[in-house]
Amino acid sequence: MITKKFISPIFDNLKINFLLLALAGSLLFYGEVPAADTTGPDTALADIIVSLKLDPRLTRGLYMGDRWVSSSHYTSALQVGKQATVEARATGRDTMGKPMGIKPEWIAADPDMVEVSPAQGSVVTIIVKRVGESRLNVISQGVSKVLHVQAMAKGSGMQLVISE
Fold it and tell me: Which site in 3, 22, 138, 142 is 20 to 30 Å from 162, CA atoms measured?
């Protein structure tokens, strides 16, 4: 027979776990940045942060939604075919380190290898059309970030390495 003494700690732990999960979920959305350009006379862009979207095949079964990473070194999942794509977004940081929305230009050093669509905006798709290496400049308000794009053939597919 199950007693109240046995069930009570289980429900208490469930309540605590639920509260922790709710707190963690609210913290994930705390740092959202507006997509529009929010610069004004008092704000100056100091840095550009580029985030790349993880392949949804990596997180789909975990019900995690879209996951973006801001790492100085990103390796994509192997993509079958002669080209590979990755979604990217750029946010700015002002001189105080606060996030700010920007609409940068994305300029590929080798447009025959790397294409960005749209060419200007905070969220873009990077399309790599062939194996090789190139640079991708992200420019806004005189501040730039250079990404090194390397595409490698692996079997019948392509894998990307993007680094700062």
Answer: 142
- Close Cβ partners of 140 (under 8 Å, ≥ 6 residues apart): 45, 48, 90, 92, 102, 103, 104, 105
Report which of 98, 94, 83 is spatially closest to residue 44, judged by C-alpha positions. Answer: 94
92 vs 50: CA distance, rounded Å:
9
Assess if residue 37 is contained within a domain. no
Residues 83 and 59 both lie in one domain: yes
The three-class DSSP label of residue 75 is strand
- Dihedral, 21, 22, 25, 26 alpha carbons, nearest 10: -150
- pLDDT tens digit string along 13-53? 555 554 444 444 444 444 444 444 454 556 799 999 999 99
Q: What is the CATH number of the domain that holds 114?
A: 2.60.40
5 lies in the same domain as 76: no
Whole domain around residue 136: which residue ranges? 45-163
Paired sense of beta strands 157-163 and 123-128, if any: unpaired
pTM over 0.90: no
Contact 47, 100 (CB under 8 A): no
